[in-house]
Amino acid sequence: MRILIINWRDIRHPQAGGAEVHVHEIFQRLAASGDHVTLLSSRALGQKQHEVVDGINTIRVGNWKNFNLVAAGYYLRRLRKIPWDIVVDDVNKIPFYTPLYVRRPILMLVPHLFGTTVFSEVSFPQAAYVFLWERAVPLVYARTPVVAISASTKRDLVERGLDSERITVVQCGIDHQVYRPAPLKHQSSSPAFVYLGRLKRYKNIDTLLEATAILKDRHPQLMVAVAGEGDDLERLKKKAATLAVHDQVRFLGRVSLEKKINLLQDAYAMIVPSPKEGWGLTAIEANACGTPVLASKSPGLVDSVKHGQSGLHVPHGDSAALAEAMEKLMRDTKLRKHLSEGALQWADNFDWEKTARLMREQLDNAAGATS
């Protein structure tokens, strides 16, 4: 197939996250199997305009502020006449509304939509802009086949007015050669927990800091690693100082893959306190390392974290409940062992090769139904 993907960022963008990993893991496999894959994305400072990355022909235009507008113009000027078999519109953040200007078969790929959570992240005018752009999704994409990455995302789309029959769930995978337990499962001599991800206000890392403050006097050896970059870093550092947990919480910045895996293997649990995720890819990465996850009982995370097997759900934003769950793991070695074993069993259900095959089926269906 000749496939065009439109996504806000590519895997080498400095702010690439789970959505970019998801696209890259799937489509590099399709490229390796013989499909011709092109990705149109925004361009960060220092990135080349054109580059082939793991078999994916990557074109970068515009920037994070204007890419949804620049992408349409670039497609019409430079890409419209190419006989694409399918155009994949990755609706991650602001929609591209490709059905309005693309006359090729389209597949809508949805990690998740922000909804009202965007108002906790950016200023009101910016949040209103994103919110209003999302409001027209059911109208513009009414006749477009959709792949959602979780049952939660599908429910959200149906509640917004999209036809359930047009939506297929294809879950994320995991690379078990990369994410796996240490040869001899070990843990820090001090109780250790880890957060991995972008440092954004909407990720609600505040709850983790507050939970740490509740526990620090009872468990003075407690250590929490916060790994990742983002524009909320300085505010979080100030909050950690205000809560007097700056000795317990280490802000590590962006870490290497090797360091990331070491953190996961070493931790009692990974913490995911978000109000909403499309899936929660890092949860399965942790599980594949034999590490349980303490996650908000939120959309997406209720799909990726199997309560009582691969981790525990806690009420979103409830720092006391999170502290209680953390303390339970610190005190109960049998529970840690049970959840660690369950995490490995749960992670075995996911594989990028399987995900790529399922996605290829949906691409074929979408191309055939609309060609």
State the gist of this model.
The chain is of the alpha/beta class and 371 residues long. Helix content is 39%, strand content 18%.
What this model shows, in words?
The chain has 371 residues and is α/β, with parallel strands linked by helices. The chain folds into 2 domains: 2-173 and 351-370, Glycogen Phosphorylase B (Rossmann fold); 192-347, Rossmann fold, CATH 3.40.50. 39% of the residues lie in helices and 18% in strands. It has 13 helices and 14 strands. The protein has an 8-stranded mixed sheet with strand order 3-4-2-1-5-6-7-8, sandwiched between helices. Strands 11-10-9-12-13-14 form a 6-stranded parallel sheet, with helices on both faces. The two termini are 13 Å apart. The mean pLDDT is 92.
Give me some keywords for this one.
Rossmann fold; globular; 2 domains; 371 residues; 8-stranded mixed β-sheet; 6-stranded parallel β-sheet; alpha/beta
